[in-house]
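Hi C.,

You asked whether I'd gotten around to modeling the 243-residue construct. I have! Everything is below, sequence then structure, no commentary in between.
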Amino acid sequence: MTTDEALNLIELLSAANVLNRMEERTPDVWAAALADLDAADCLKAAAHLVRTQQWVKICDVRDAVAELRAARIAAANLVYDGDPRESGAESLQSLRALVDAAASGRLPAQPIRAALEPAPDTAPATGRARAVLAAVGNRVPSPREGVVNVFAVACRICNARPGRPCTSTRNPRRRRADPHPARLDDARRAAAGLPPVDPAEEHEEMARRLAASRAALAALPPGTIIEPDDGFQHPDHQENAAS
């Protein structure tokens, strides 16, 4: 802020009758105290202060400008992906420049979902990443005590978003009557405070169980008959019972 800009600010405050004192060196004092601030931001802050305070001091203008800049930063929902070619100092400098651009109003406000969208030259997210991005901004249903809400989590099989039913993997337009079992498992783990199941670990566990089953079958003597334990009486049992 220059002396002329400080004089415009003081004239605005004086016209609103919120200045406690006005002397010959007052513009110089205000210009020196607000030299690091943008004049337009100071005028916006002053326009707000004259509606809420009886007297306006230099510290009031500085505080109001700080709140204005903080609100712009929050509304911009900044996301800095970084550049692997940058050093630590260069990355920090780029991040500070991004924050300053948002605080100064050079970056427009945007919802968090728009801030997380990939760049134009970046491949769109797939799998779980796509489900997470699609869930941003949606209200996640809260599970009731003692009941697992399967729709509180996304489905890793059909990529259904939280709150949406599962769809067929062959025909995404067709809704399933029941959610995928994997989604139910994830919902139970989330309700218990556990992380989601890693697909790689799940595949390894399935392979381990299959290998253990094959080894158990190979260890049986030749001619061994394995009867299913399904609760039904089989024909051999019925014949033995009749004799």
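If it helps when you're writing up: The chain is about 50% helix and 0% strand.

Thanks,
B.
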